[in-house]
Amino acid sequence: MDKELLTVDEVADILRTTPNTIYRWLRAGKFPGVKIGKEWRIKREALEERLNDSIHHPEQSYIEKLNIQGDHVMVLTSSQSEVLDIEVEFFKKGLNKGQRLFKGCWWQNQDEVRKELTLRGIHVEDLERQDKLVIADLADAFRKKGIQGPVEIWQSEAYKSLSMGYKVTWGSGSPDLLCCGDFNKLQEFENSLAKSIEKIPIVGICPYVLNLDAQDSFNSLVHLMNQHKGVLFYGSKISAFLRKDMV
Q1: pLDDT tens digit string along 115-148?
Q2: Cα angle at 118 between 64 and 154, to 5 degrees?
Q3: pTM of this prediction?
Q4: Which residue from 76, 133, 156, 246 lies 20 to 30 Å from 104 (Cα-Cα)?
Q5: What's the Cα-to-Cα distance from 1 to each of 14, 44, 178, rounded to whole Å?
C-alpha cells in the first residue's frame, strides 16, 4: 500500500487545478489531507480512492440539471473565488458538449479572467484564436449605451454562434448589485436579458456574490431571483439548485 504523501502543488498538477483551490477544499473538509506543521499533505492512497469514487459514484452536477437548449440561472456564492470556480465548471461542460463560450465581465478584469481560466485548465488563448470563446467587457458596454449595451453583446454573440453552426451559446456574466449604478437599473437589465434569452438558444448563468452584511442586499437578491428560471446556491461544502417554480 502506497503511503507516499503528496504536496498541495503535486495534487493540483494531478487534478489540473490551482493550489489555491486545493487549499480551499482542504480547509472546507471536501478533500482528505493532514497538516504537518504549517504544511498540508495528501496521501496518494486517499487521492486515488477519491478519484475512483468520483468515477464509479459521480455526484450529479447542477449543470446536468440545466436545460441545455436554453436556460437563465442565477448563482449565489460567498466569494469572488467561488464565482471563478463555478464559471470554470460551467465552461468545461460547455466545451465537452461542443458549444461556443461567452464570458461577460462586470467587476472582473478581462486579462485577469484570462489568466485565472487558464490556470484552471481552460486553454483561453487557443479558444479565443479559434473564436470558440469571447470575453467581453459588459461594464464598458453599460457605460456607453446603458442596459441595452450588455444585452446587445449577449444577443450578438449568440447570433454569431448560430451563424458559425453552434446550436447553443454557453455564457456567464458576473454582475453585482452596484454594476448598473442602482438596483432598479440592474433589475431592468436582468429582465431584458431574460426576455432575450427566451428567444435565443443561450444557456446562461449570472453568478452573484452574496454579501449579507450589505444593507438590503438580501432583499435585492430575492427580487433578482424572479428574473431567472432557477437559482443555484453554490458553496464549498454543498450546493443546492432550485427551479423557479420551487421557490
Answers
A1: 999 988 899 999 999 999 999 999 999 999 999 9
A2: 60
A3: 0.73
A4: 246
A5: 19, 10, 54
Give residue 121's Cα distance to chain centre: 14
Which residues share a beta bridge with 176?
Answer: none
Q: Among residues 136, 127, 118, which one has the least CA distance to residue 95?
A: 127
CA distance linking residue 199 with residue 197, whole number of Å:
5
Using CA of residue 77, residue 135, residue 108, residue 177, what is the dihedral sign?
negative
Whether the CB-CB separation of 43 and 32 falls below 8 Å is answered with yes
Cβ proximity of 157 and 102 under 8 Å: yes
Q: Which residue has the cell 468545461?
A: 92
Residue type, 218: F
Residue 164 grid cell: 458559425
Q: Whose CA is closest to 204, among 110, 61, 68, 88?
A: 68
Query: For 174-213, how does the pLDDT look when each residue is reduced to its tens digit (9 = 90+)?
Result: 998 889 988 899 999 999 998 888 888 999 999 998 776 6
d(CA 242, CA 233): 8
The Cα–Cα gap between 98 and 151 comes to 24
Which residues, listed in sequence order, are joined to residue 75 by a DSSP beta bridge?
A: 207, 232
**Cα–Cα nearest to 42, from 18, 1, 9, 16:** 9
CA distance 106 to 121: 22
- Find, among 190, 183, 196, the residue nearest to 226 by Cα: 190
